[in-house]
Structure formats: structure tokens, C-alpha cells
Amino acid sequence: MRKRLVILGGGESGVGTAVLGKQKGFDVFVSDKGAIKPQYKEVLNDNEIEWEELQHTEAKILNADVVMKSPGIPDKVALVEQLKVNNVEVVSEIEFAAKYTKSTIVGITGSNGKTTTSLLTYHLLKDELNVGLAGNIGDSFALQVASQTHQNFVLELSSFQLDGIRTFKPYVAVITNISEDHLDRYDYKFENYIASKFRITMNQTEKDYLVYDADDKVIEKYLKENKIKASLIPFSIERKLEQGVYIDNNNIKLTIKEQTLTMPIKDLALEGKHNVKNAMAAAAVANLLKIRKSTIRESLSNFQGVEHRLEKVLKIQNVQYINDSKATNVNATFYALDSMQVPTVWIVGGVDKGNDYAELLPLVNEKVKAIICLGSDNEKLKYVFNGTVDVLVETDSMEEAVKMAYKIADKGENVLLSPACASFDLFDNYEDRGRQFKEAVRKL
């Protein structure tokens, strides 16, 4: 009797898992409460996989042996609760696919910087290793396991993906940082979200590695209070480390076991303190996977940045427009504001995820000349920032926000889109928000 694999969500991870499941002999069924995109329907039909959209037929779902749930579906949904009552195993794509590969896995998580660190790590490895890039980024991990023979994988992992793992174990785990995010999915308890991030290391052994930011108080506190089996590789821009990666005389200095590497910060392709940390994490991974020092240095100096992350769009009348739409939480916006060197018109707002904007007040006082709120509900922003800047205006479209910024900004200043919020009130996702910003700037 073939085992039944039911997949909730017919997006990238769902369809990838369906293809891998079919290949491994499962009886596969894909169910999506929304509409499935035409390109995904084509893949499902080509592979003769049964699917439904715009509904969940419980009779076809509750008889599963294993369910792969899309990371966007909360655990508290009635259907998922019912599956758990029935003792049906509910896993993430990462958990399902990892069972079918013997590849060396690098897993990267964190509240901010995980996309840049994942892309940067992949960039450092790809010249010398056969490596795939997946997880929250690119083609699905499951599809790559089904169709390609990578000996190594770099996986960008969200807390939602980590919530669905049981036995998944990366050889190298990276935690870039932990700050309040997605608290609406974690009962508004920060400790639940922290524990979720640390699931990345829960199955690691002494032979595996955990690379982490030693300046992050949340991470440091967790490590003091909880036993971690993996070998710890810290990185820091605040203090020297006997083992790990740190700053010495404006050089990044890496010392891991007997290996050492030195590189001037000025040679890094990416600017900003947060990117120094991303580079440190990526360099540590590359060193652990035995990439040559010359390759690490060269790759760190020629890496092209990530779209929607402090992306310089255009200079108009000597005003620099910067797209940081990927800043969907307060901590990411903190980094963005911190890196501004001239007075800045700040476009902020969207769907609040339980944000505490107060920690941005010192930076707003120092760097921000005007605030443009862009969201369907700006009350919290207005409450926190009223009185800190001379100009605070509300807009309800990207075009209007950009036109307003154009009027307010003077020569030599910046206009920064760094929303600190999710995008789903006015946009499809943060990419759509960033593209609309760039489009509106080009129309000025």
C-alpha cells in the first residue's frame, strides 16, 4: 500500500514537494485554499499529480500518512489542528526533502540579513563546490533534490520552516541575529519566536557547527541558558575572539581551529555594519567547507547586493532614492537608518506585526527630516513619531508617497523606503512594494 502524502499549499515549496513525493513512490494530493498559479498547475499535470484549488476537501486530506504544510499556513488553522489530533505527521518542505539527500547542508536563519548572508555564502562556495541555493529563496529545495545532484546546499530558513522540522540537521547552522518579528504567529511571546529560531541547531551533534552573532544579546542569553551540542563559531564587530571572526584594525580577522584569514573591510563589496556581519558569517561557512582563502577574499569583494535591500535606485536632482522594501521589521529598518549619512525622508508603514517603533526614536531624531506613512493603518506610527520630526504625512499609494518625498527632499539628501512592516495591506509582497517604489521613482 503506497503511503499518502498530502500537500497544503500549491506554491513553490508545495509543488516541489509533490514532484519529489511522486518520484519517491507516494500517493500525492495537493490542496490549496486559494488559486494555484498556471505554471504550477502545468508541473502538477505533467507529473500526473492530483490537485484541487479554492478549497480543502477534508475527506481527501485527513486520510494522509504525512502532510507537508506551506510555511505560510499557521499551525493554529482548524484543519492542521485536526490532523494533529489524528496523529498525522505535519512537516515542512525542508524536513521532507532533507530525508532524500546526502548533501552537506548549510542552514541560515535570523530575523534580518538571512537572504544577503545566504546569497553571499552561495557566492563564496559556488566556484569550488557543486552547490544549490534554496529554502526561502530560488527554486524549492524539494524540487532540486528531485531533479539535480548538488553535493551541497545553502538553505535560507524562516522560523515557519523551522517549526516544521523533526530530524533535519544542517552541518553548518547560521543565526545572523534575533529581534522581535512575526510575533503574531507566536502568541505575541518573544521567547516562542527565539526558540523557533534555535530549532535550526536542535539535531546538531559535536561534529556540526553553529555560526552566530556574539554581539546579539538575545542569542548570547539563549546560549548561556541552553546546552547546544554543536561546535560554536561566533562573530563580532565589538570584541576580539580567540576562535571565530572579529574586527582588528579595520580588518576582518578569521581564526577557526588552525585556519586564519585577514581581509580589509574597505575591500568588501557591500557597505554598512550589518553587511560586515553578513560577510563574517559567510566567510566562516566558506572556511568550514574548505574554500580557498583567495576565493573567499575575491568573492567578498565582487558580490552584487540583494534587490530590495538598501538598493540604490536613482539620483534625481542630487537626491538619492533607496529601496529597502525587504525591511519588514523594526530591526531591519534600524540597520537602514543607521547607515544613512545625510538627512533622510523616510517612507514607512504597512501591516504591523506587533512592532515596537520606540527603539527607532534615537535614529529618527538624528537622521530623519520627514516621515511619510504608507499603509492602511498608520495610527501607531503617528503616535510614536509625532513631534520627533517637523513633517509627518499620510499617503495611501506608492506613487503619492514618492511624489510627496520628491517635494520634501532637498539636494544632497536621501529618500529611503524602509517600511519596518509587512506589505500585504497595499501590495502583493515586499518585492511588489519595492518594484512599485522603483517604478514611481523612475516616473518622477
TrEMBL record:
<protein>
    <recommendedName>
        <fullName>UDP-N-acetylmuramoylalanine--D-glutamate ligase</fullName>
        <ecNumber>6.3.2.9</ecNumber>
    </recommendedName>
</protein>
<feature type="domain" description="Mur ligase central">
    <location>
        <begin position="108"/>
        <end position="286"/>
    </location>
</feature>
<feature type="domain" description="Mur ligase C-terminal">
    <location>
        <begin position="308"/>
        <end position="421"/>
    </location>
</feature>
<keyword id="KW-0132">Cell division</keyword>
<keyword id="KW-0961">Cell wall biogenesis/degradation</keyword>
<dbReference type="InterPro" id="IPR013221">
    <property type="entry name" value="Mur_ligase_cen"/>
</dbReference>
<keyword id="KW-0547">Nucleotide-binding</keyword>
<feature type="binding site">
    <location>
        <begin position="110"/>
        <end position="116"/>
    </location>
    <ligand>
        <name>ATP</name>
    </ligand>
</feature>
<keyword id="KW-0133">Cell shape</keyword>
<dbReference type="InterPro" id="IPR005762">
    <property type="entry name" value="MurD"/>
</dbReference>
<comment type="similarity">
    <text>Belongs to the MurCDEF family.</text>
</comment>
<dbReference type="Pfam" id="PF08245">
    <property type="entry name" value="Mur_ligase_M"/>
</dbReference>
<dbReference type="InterPro" id="IPR036615">
    <property type="entry name" value="Mur_ligase_C_dom_sf"/>
</dbReference>
<keyword id="KW-0436">Ligase</keyword>
<comment type="function">
    <text>Cell wall formation. Catalyzes the addition of glutamate to the nucleotide precursor UDP-N-acetylmuramoyl-L-alanine (UMA).</text>
</comment>
<dbReference type="Pfam" id="PF02875">
    <property type="entry name" value="Mur_ligase_C"/>
</dbReference>
<dbReference type="GO" id="GO:0008764">
    <property type="term" value="F:UDP-N-acetylmuramoylalanine-D-glutamate ligase activity"/>
</dbReference>
<keyword id="KW-0131">Cell cycle</keyword>
<dbReference type="InterPro" id="IPR004101">
    <property type="entry name" value="Mur_ligase_C"/>
</dbReference>
<dbReference type="Pfam" id="PF21377">
    <property type="entry name" value="MurD_N"/>
</dbReference>
<keyword id="KW-0573">Peptidoglycan synthesis</keyword>
<keyword id="KW-0067">ATP-binding</keyword>
<keyword id="KW-0963">Cytoplasm</keyword>
<comment type="pathway">
    <text>Cell wall biogenesis; peptidoglycan biosynthesis.</text>
</comment>
<dbReference type="InterPro" id="IPR036565">
    <property type="entry name" value="Mur-like_cat_sf"/>
</dbReference>
